[in-house]
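Q: Entry one of two.
A:
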Amino acid sequence: MKIVSRDIFVFQEKDFFSPIRDKVDYARLLVLTARKLILNIEPASITATCSLKLIVDKMSRVFFYQEDKYFSVAFPFTTIVDRRGNITLTSYAGKRIDSKNISAVIAILDNVQFRLNPSLIDFYIDPNGIESDGLFLLEEIFQFEPSYIRFDLDPVLQNGKLHPLNHLDINYSQYSTYKLGLKETITKKYFENLQNINTECSFVID
């Protein structure tokens, strides 16, 4: 099993904890996570209250922790960690993921033309532009299932069994999401084991 943890600082929280509503949001989160894993720049003078954890076992998922909210998505890259803790990431097609193509993906996602019509088929790529380096990576990301799941402790919107205080939100799309109520707050370890097929199953019963 590979486990890699990183602190998320206050000035980075918006990047990692903005709502995920579609594949574009998922793609942005993945490449920002990849950048943080690769660069591993941790300001010594800043205290962090949030974090991320990459767990590669029979699964490959990245977990994000913020106060009483946890969420997790599939991490569809191959991860190699050397003896010094340096990380190399490659796509499943074998393409090395580096700062250049991460910046290229972000350039596509921030492009006004792409935001108006988020289709890689219709999006014009300048062969000499920065976006061309990220196109292959974005195409791969869009093919993967995000496998989004979030734990909420939500006293503001609590409404009996319709919206329990403790619950799991599964899937991000409003057309496919559903809630699973929990009788109590769960730990980070429980949340991770829930999604690890190498650990014992949790059982659901009304």
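Q: Entry two of two.
A:
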Amino acid sequence: MLFENDRVLLAQNADNGLWMTIGGAIEPDETPADAAVREFWEETGLVVELTGLLGVFGGPEFRVTYPNGDTTAYVSSVFVGRRVAGELRPDGSETIALRFVSRPEIRDLPMTPLSAAIVEHAFDHRDIPYFAKATWLPPGPPL
């Protein structure tokens, strides 16, 4: 995530018009950090330097059912970074608009539950990496 002047950069998805965080899939043999820098460049035209880990997100909000009926659950590693170079421009295929938004402005933007969960944490706890505490226990008598 990229913050400037207490505003976070979001992208408008070309497929559904919803606002989202910048990111995507990791290529074979690519590290999560390299994937984050590459995806940021591809979708925004900006080169970023990663400065920290915002968190690792997953759970019910990250379950996606595609139009063909396939269902998957995503785990997202979200980094915080700073702008190093480049000119802000949507790629036109995945992103059709880019916008820095303040906390009050995000309430008016249509976005997926997973993007909303990440952005909410980013505004509330930017300096505290997030992960959901484990609740699973093995079957059988209590330990």
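A: Comment on entry two: The first helix runs from residue 32 to 44. The chain has one domain: 3-124.
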